[in-house]
Design goal:
Aspartate Aminotransferase, domain 1; three-stranded antiparallel β-sheet; binds pyridoxal-5'-phosphate; single chain; Aspartate Aminotransferase, domain 2; about 375 residues
Length: about 375
């Protein structure tokens, strides 16, 4: 809970608001914030230590504001991971994709502008909108959590947003957004004039690919569409697949024009020399870092199959199709009770998304075994 004296001139629209964030509890098994459960390899940690040591004596100077070396590393990684080679001027980094997204809202949102998304989706989006005085509107996803393409196209035509923000795979559902749909949306946005903006302006379509490395093999990334669409931006992060959440590194791939818009709103020297050095060190070991992504995909598929075999009040559980490192499962009459009972057993998951559903992110084999055993116990007690 916040403790804000009434004498402080907090913005009127922020009065009564609470800071965003899942509880950070000290429990044995944390499966609540979609982190990568595997610590960095020794070799990666050593490279980070070496690179950080090298920059330590230059910390009296500001870092490279344009973080060119790191942007080159993003390019090389994307060429390797998604098969699309972009130029350095098409990449941009920030402190987590949270900051990338805030910069997008700062550059393209604002008073009189609307951003459009498809819910249920990542719960930070309305906060970026609030913080930049942008209106946030949503089109509801279908029952299977895929986007309703026709309704979304209609929404875009009616609202004429400046930002269309879609997540693939989506959080908290894990749903992939087919590239064909992205193309259809981009083509539609190319024909739409943004409400309240200058003649000839079109919505920016942002695909948040925070979890994209966990997608099923063979699924293309929206990065492959960047050469063809100037209004497309793809946001990525090192937090998930790279097990780098604590380092805070996110990045954006887009046409150079979009990157130049973000350069206008970024804070000067927003990426510290230590952050840049750490990320460069992690990219020295891309294959090692990504080895565990395949393992987490397996864990996800096994856990989904196991959850579907569990019974709650005599019926099988539902599990949303996920191409991510987490699963949304339900439905529970009282999801808070299930969450609390798991927490009593040392397992922290997340109450998020539509009512009656819970989200669990994939852990190590030991953590998943602990989850299964606690959840089996919870289900049997509930059904007693
Ligand atoms: C969909 C989505 N986008 C972006 C983020 C932000 O990630 P980060 O700021 O760590 O890059 C998250 C974090 O959980 C997320 O779920």
């Amino acid at each position: 809970m916040t403790s804000i004296p009434a004498s402080l001139p907090l913005r009127n629209d922020l009065i009564g608001e609470e800071p965003y964030g899942a509880p950070q509890l000290d429990v044995p098994v944390c499966l609540n914030v979609n982190e990568n459960p595997y610590p960095l390899d020794e070799q990666v940690a050593d490279s980070i230590a070496r690179r950080v040591r090298e920059v330590a004596q230059t910390l009296n100077r500001y870092p490279d504001r344009e973080h060119v070396q790191l942007r080159q590393a993003f390019c090389d990684y994307l060429a390797h991971e998604s098969g699309t080679r972009l130029g350095v001027e098409q990449l941009w980094g920030a402190n987590g994709s949270n900051e990338i997204m805030l910069q997008i809202f700062q550059a393209f949102g604002g008073p009189g502008r609307t951003a459009l998304g498809c819910d249920p989706t990542y719960s930070m989006y309305p906060e970026y909108a609030r913080d930049t005085f942008t209106e946030w509107k949503v089109i509801h996803r279908r029952d299977d959590f895929t986007i309703d393409l026709d309704a979304t196209l209609e929404g875009i035509a009616d609202i004429r947003p400046s930002i269309v923000l879609l997540t693939s795979p989506n959080n908290p559902t894990g749903t992939n957004l087919p590239l064909e749909d992205v193309r259809t949306l981009l083509d539609a946005c190319g024909r739409i004039q943004v409400a309240g903006a200058a003649e000839g302006t079109h919505p920016v379509v942002v695909i948040d690919e925070a979890y994209v490395e966990f997608r099923n093999p063979g699924t293309p990334s929206a990065v492959s569409l960047i050469p063809a669409y100037r209004n497309l931006a793809v946001s990525r992060t090192m937090s998930k697949a790279f097990a780098f959440a604590g380092a805070r590194v996110g990045y954006l791939a887009a046409d150079r024009g979009i990157v130049d818009c973000l350069r206008i709103v970024r804070m000067p020297y927003h990426l510290s020399a230590i952050t840049q050095a750490s990320a460069l060190a992690a990219f020295e070991h891309t294959d090692l870092q990504l080895r565990r992504v395949a393992k987490l995909r397996e864990t996800r598929d096994e856990t989904a199959a196991w959850l579907k075999r569990q019974r709650y009040h005599g019926a099988s559980l539902q599990v949303a199709d996920s191409e991510s490192n987490f699963l949304l499962f339900g439905k529970f009459d009282d999801r808070q009770k299930v969450f609390d009972m798991l927490l009593d057993r040392g397992i922290l998951i997340r109450v998020v998304g539509p009512d009656h559903w819970l989200r669990v992110c994939m852990g190590t084999d030991e953590e998943m075994a602990a989850f299964r055993s606690a959840f089996t116990e919870v289900l049997s007690q509930i059904d007693d």
